[in-house]
Amino acid sequence: MLPRDQLSLTPVARTAPIQSIGDPRQQAFQRALAGMVGQSMQAEVLSKLPDGSFVVRVADMAARMPLPGGAEPGAQVPLTLVALHPRPTFQVQTANGAPAFAEAAPAEGAATALTYLEGKDAAALTRTAALLANAQSLARLPGGAVDGANASISTAGKVLGDVIAAAQKAGTQASAALGRMPLLAAPDGDAGRIAAALQEGLAKSGLFYESHVAEWARGARALGELAGEPQARGTPAPTDPATAQFINLQLNAHEQGRVAWQGQLWPGQNLQWEIERDAPEAEGRASPGQEDGAASTWQSRLRLRFGALGEVAARIVLSGDQLHISLDGASEDAARAMEAGRARLAQALDAAGTPLATLAIHGLGKSDGQA
């Protein structure tokens, strides 16, 4: 599956009654901060509350929010506003420089549970803060001078911050684009048809919708080709949890050079599929056959289940003109069955013009085999 930042939302307090996000005080608090997304500011710590949160003065308002350990009344805490919805969320500067994010609520009125994220749990929201900071740096006056008082984030930047915040708050984090229908109507042993179905499924997953729209605008793609993508079938609000998570998948694909799809290859044949470009190996190891300065490396991982073999995981690495394949079977019997087809696979790849450099086959308790 596509690696994702899995956020474990840790509430500082769960006191009742819970303040509704639609509460007039909350709405007034958000209106007061409108137009400040992406801006840095100082918060003065006024007091510490029994539940562990703090009352702070930020942008001339009193607010309640969790803060890093060691915060004391009278201290100044640097903050950056990264989202307004569903609650104002700030990036907090910690003593060790690690990322941390905290929700805030009006100081007066009913108590509400506030989320505080730090360490690896805050990694995903760090991207939002970086995007906002970069956009903020573009708000310049003629001549290149920055007007700190009047600089503002774009509407798109504000929406992006709210979208990513909404994605992180979803109960289940999406890690792959989902295929709603099988790619093929029935089992098929034709490699060409399978390859075409995989290509079409990924192309119509919606992960590349915006680039496809740009191609249509240039006359390089027919309008009808866009109709099969999820975005063309409806326009829910960007902060709808499912929509926000899909946008986050697109951002991850752009940032990491990695995409993932899961669904059915044909009815009853589930498929998990990842494609990755130039990703470093775990613990800094190079891919098989890859050397310093080598050509771009592409990796593809597939996981399927067969009646005779059980679950099989395949990893295909194409580094320059070198093709490397690793097959992991669920048992020694499955590994032996795949070993029996080693020569036929090599011959088929030779005939296709992509000779096999290495083939490793694994089963439970079985060592690698090399071509």
Which helices and strands occur, and which strands form pairs?
Layout: E1 10-11, H1 24-33, E2 40-48, E3 54-58, E4 61-65, E5 76-83, E6 89-92, E7 100-103, E8 105-106, E9 115-118, H2 123-137, H3 155-168, E10 177-178, H4 191-203, H5 209-217, H6 241-256, E11 258-266, E12 269-277, E13 297-306, E14 310-319, E15 322-329, H7 332-340, H8 342-351, E16 356-362
Parallel strand pairs: 10-11, 15-16
Antiparallel strand pairs: 1-9, 2-3, 2-5, 3-4, 4-8, 5-6, 6-7, 7-9, 11-12, 12-13, 13-14, 14-15
Helix pairs in contact: 2-3, 3-6
Could you explain how this protein is built, in words?
This protein is of the alpha+beta class and 371 residues long. It has two domains: 10-168, no CATH class; 177-362, no CATH class. It has eight helices and 16 strands. A nine-stranded antiparallel beta sheet has the order 1-9-7-6-5-2-3-4-8. Strands 10-11-12-13-14-15-16 form a seven-stranded mixed beta sheet. Strand 13 and strand 14 (310-319) form a beta hairpin. Helix 2 (123-137) packs antiparallel against helix 3 and helix 3 (155-168) crosses helix 6 (241-256).
